[in-house]
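Sat 14:20. Reprocessing the chain from the morning session after the first attempt stalled halfway. Input below, unchanged.
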Amino acid sequence: MTPVGPLQMTDRTRAVLSWCVHLYTGLGLPIAFLGLLAAVNADARAAFWWMFAAFFIDCTDGTLARAVDVRRGAPDFDGRKLDDITDYLNYVFVPLYLAWRLELVGETGLPALLLALLASGYGFCSERAKTDDGYFTGFPSYWNVAVLYAYLLGLPRWTNALVFALLALAVFAPLKCLYPSKTPHFQKLNVVLTCVWFFAIFVVLLQLDHPPRGLVTASLAYVAYYFGMSFWLQFGAASSPEATPA
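Finished this time. Tokens:
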């Protein structure tokens, strides 16, 4: 979502709304538990829907937090720490466990999953994980997305394991990746394309038993755009005066 400034309100109202926003973020914790239960039972449909719900909350709670100005409304509570905890569970632990439970990598691919868990743990604790100019540094641990596509595309297990291992190493890469709601360059386009992709995934999940191959393939165009734009903004736009924020 596009960032908004703090709204005008009384201190009491701001405090109440701040705690409501923190509660909204905290819903990711029971959602992670329910997602894990679904993964334990190898219920891919339920697990992916719980992860989708967590993804939606994570995409919207930041905008709400900025609108309410939670730092001012609840100054003694660290909402970012709560957000990191919920994100690690829903973006990393639950999807990677689901990948194991659904046998997307096989026993020989277990080291790739363990490497991903460890790398993302370090990534979440890095002070450089999010830059001051609105980017992620390295692969931003979107394992929920990686596992979903591994499931949808039905690639060989060794291919999935190799991709997971490479993405785990990419967590440490000095590459600035798009933070769609904060990256200043082409921000409106980034947000619009992210919303379109999000809706496409929603439709795919509705038909998860027989996912529409055309829509799955088309949704990969956004993944290509995400990484392509990230590379261009870091390496190509640096020497291009036309690449101004939009």
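Residues 84 and 124 are 7 Å apart (CA to CA).
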